[in-house]
């Protein structure tokens, strides 16, 4: 390794390298496409009031409130039923004084009606299909003017802000836009990341490994991590330990994506293909475990980060060095650290910042326990964890009950 640095120095250098990602462009996308998780770039303003017209909040009878003012369980008011209004296109006829019309939820309230009596407050109790024989109704409870009538604009006024810029779009946001007749939203363009897994021993998870081969965990895991951080996977490659082939793949990745991310080939072995293919990149040893071997620089004019090949090392590297930068670029909030106390004592090598897999202890308040050992190949322990426990580089032993910083996974 050409140099040795601490975690914060490498974080600062990565942030400087990726500073160009901060000012993201915008694009318009259809609400019928993949908008979930995208970040609104500008306010969404209602072009019309909601509701657009007076409509019923209940299944029942549209009436004039004055006509049912005396209604009660012992003094029912009987009104002739002059018609039926469904939640359908069209405009109902005005309501004549002293009459009622059967009305369904969402149906337009006739002119002249100023209240809706729920069907439960009548002698019909419930509706079951169209009843042409319905000629009168007994109302057993009075209703004031305005009850169960939704007025235009009572939900959203025309010109009101429905969704604020910076909103991370979820299904209920899409519903609000659609209800206002808005079919396209302006969102931030996510950072496009190329993920390049290196190693002749790698086989896709749906492949059949031969002798000495393993399934590639880094490609799928980092692709998922990029998406969870608000980025987009622009390219995924698995490349054998051939520097020329890797170099061609990296240049293709740089031409297509904003950032290039590699895994493997950066340690001290005899076949470190990434180091051979990227002589212009700075490779260093970061004083952390797991994830010590790191690299950063440019390829084809685009930023490139090189992570170790061990699956846990790669995932920890992403969390420590890249996750919050992608989230910030996409206008997502950072993942904040959480204070906790250790459920049991832990040991740590002097001079290396340990990022141990941990899990919240059920029913024990803010207590965390270490999951598995420190090995960077222990993917099962990573799967069982929900936090990383941050052990400072200067600590060699932390006793039970010691307060520590944790990073949510």
Helix/strand-derived category reads alpha/beta
Low-confidence regions: none
Provide the β-strand percentage band.
25-35%
In this structure, how is the largest beta sheet organized? 7 strands, mixed
Radius of gyration over all CA atoms, rounded? 32 Å
Mean pLDDT: 92
Name given to the CATH architecture of the largest domain = 3-Layer(aba) Sandwich
How many domains make up the 3D coordinates?
4
- CATH-defined topology of the largest domain: Molybdenum Cofactor Biosythetic Enzyme, Chain A
Which strands sit side by side, in order, in the main sheet? 1-18-20-21-17-13-16
CATH hierarchy class name of the largest domain: Alpha Beta
What is the CATH homologous superfamily assignment of the largest domain?
Answer: MoaB/Mog-like domain
Count of runs of 4 or more consecutive helical residues: 7
Record field, number of beta strands: 28
Describe this structure as you would to a colleague.
It is a single chain. With 409 residues, the protein is of the alpha/beta class. It folds into 4 domains: 161 residues, Molybdenum Cofactor Biosythetic Enzyme, Chain A (3-Layer(aba) Sandwich); 57 residues, Molybdopterin biosynthesis moea protein, domain 2; 96 residues, Molybdopterin biosynthesis moeA protein, domain 3 (Beta Complex); 71 residues, Beta-clip. A 7-stranded mixed sheet has the order 1-18-20-21-17-13-16. A 5-stranded mixed sheet has the order 8-5-7-6-9, with no helix packed on it. The chain has a 5-stranded mixed β-barrel with strand order 22-25-24-26-28. Strand 24 and strand 25 form a beta hairpin. The two termini are 29 Å apart.
């Amino acid at each position: 390794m050409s140099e040795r640095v601490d975690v914060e120095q490498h974080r600062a250098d990565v942030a400087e390298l990726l500073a160009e990602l901060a000012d993201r462009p915008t694009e318009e996308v259809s609400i019928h496409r993949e908008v979930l998780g995208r970040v609104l770039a500008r306010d969404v303003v209602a072009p019309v009031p909601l509701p657009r017209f007076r409509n019923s909040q209940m299944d029942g009878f549209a009436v004039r409130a004055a006509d049912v003012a005396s209604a009660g369980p012992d003094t029912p008011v009987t009104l002739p039923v002059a018609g039926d209004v469904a939640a359908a296109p069209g405009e109902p006829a005005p309501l004549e004084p002293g009459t009622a019309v059967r009305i369904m939820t969402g149906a337009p309230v006739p002119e002249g009606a100023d209240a809706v009596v729920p069907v439960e407050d009548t002698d019909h109790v419930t509706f079951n299909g169209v009843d042409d024989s319905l000629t009168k109704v007994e109302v057993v409870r009075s209703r004031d003017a305005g009850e169960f009538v939704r007025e235009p604009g009572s939900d959203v006024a025309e010109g009101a802000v429905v969704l604020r810029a910076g909103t991370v779009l979820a299904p209920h946001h899409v519903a609000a836009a659609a209800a206002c007749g808005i079919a396209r939203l302006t969102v931030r363009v996510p950072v496009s990341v190329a993920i390049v897994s290196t190693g002749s021993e790698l086989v896709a998870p749906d492949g059949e490994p031969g002798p000495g081969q393993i399934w590639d965990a880094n490609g799928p895991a980092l692709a998922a991590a990029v998406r969870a951080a608000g980025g987009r996977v622009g390219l995924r490659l698995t490349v054998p330990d051939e520097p020329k082939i890797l170099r061609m793949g990296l240049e293709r990745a740089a031409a297509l994506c904003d950032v290039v991310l590699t895994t493997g080939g950066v340690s001290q072995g005899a076949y470190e293909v990434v180091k051979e293919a990227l002589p212009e990149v700075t490779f260093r040893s970061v004083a952390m475990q797991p994830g010590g071997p790191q690299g950063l620089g440019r390829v084809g004019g685009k930023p490139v980060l090189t992570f170790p090949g061990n699956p846990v090392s790669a995932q920890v590297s992403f969390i420590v060095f890249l996750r919050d930068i992608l989230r910030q670029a996409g206008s997502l909030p950072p993942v904040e650290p959480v204070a906790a106390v250790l459920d049991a004592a832990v040991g740590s090598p002097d001079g290396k910042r340990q990022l141990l897999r941990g899990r919240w202890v059920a029913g024990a308040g803010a207590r965390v326990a270490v999951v598995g050992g420190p090995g960077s190949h222990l993917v099962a322990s990573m799967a069982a964890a929900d936090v990383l426990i941050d052990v400072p580089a200067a600590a060699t032993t932390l006793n039970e009950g010691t307060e520590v910083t944790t990073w949510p996974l």
